[in-house]
Amino acid sequence: MINLYFDTKPLSSGHVVRGIGYYTKNLFEQLQEDKSIRLVENTSEADIIHHPYFDLFTNTLKPVAGKKNVVTIFDVIPLLYPQNYPPGVKGMINLFRQKLVLKKVDSVITISETSKKDIVRYLDVPAKKIFPIHLAASHEFRKLATGNWQLETTRRFGLPEHFVLYVGDVNFNKNLVTLADACCKANIPLVVVGKQATNLEIDLNHIENRSFAELLKKYGKNKNVLKIGYVPTEDLVKIYNLAAVYCQPSLYEGFGIPVLEAQACGVPVIASRTQALVEIAESSCLFVDNPKDSNELGSKIAQIIKDETFKERLVAEGVKNVKQYSWEKTRDKTVEVYKSC
What we know:
Rossmann fold; 13 helices; single chain; six-stranded parallel β-sheet; globular
């Protein structure tokens, strides 16, 4: 029996509606079902402390002395694109401190082989201490039967009859301006779901938000680029089911949960041919070789819309692919890491 303290702070912070909160919620629920784990409410009772969140530029990692410490690091994307995610002097000092503290950790969990390589390269963590464990779509994401929910959801959110869907943040690496350009060329509306997309308090002059500012400047008044904002999971499942295509045009990803969510809902997926997306989707997506080429992306969107046979094949491949992933598997591999500490 392992006495585990699992830090659930991300569930009561701004991370609750982002990937970190998604990970914390699903893994914590699964750990409660594991008979080899005893979850404790304070660190003094624990054998192992799991820190499910690591910020590159903030002092978030605080290992507990005399205990085994495990930390989850999703990715180091800001270090790959420093010109778009400038940390400032304070951030660089904190990064130095975080890297030092990482040396006191027993194991690092990350979400893909791609992220593992980046963590080795940018955070100086030995490869033998890093364990890639894939995530999964939650059980709620599934193909829905035809019903009144379709018309109700379409009317409530003002959705077009046919649309390309994107779910997630609006950061530089998400490449949304190119996606909007591509949708216009393919003559199909784009629906963007995510908290940041409708955040009226976002500082558009901040360098990290320049790509979103560009999107608003170019398409802010375009009725064919619909920004919905955050929606509860129940509604998100319905919106996925209504989409003609899901598109993940990212320049870089650590994993790409929406790809699996879309496939679980029976939606064909277009994705950039970036390392992590190829790793998790293999041949189940229609890949774009140059994610900055809106002509290529637009033609791939049009191909799926026009070719029903090809679309059905992608859907079938997606359903097959998503079955490889589950939160039960994520939990079991995480427990293996605990036992190896």
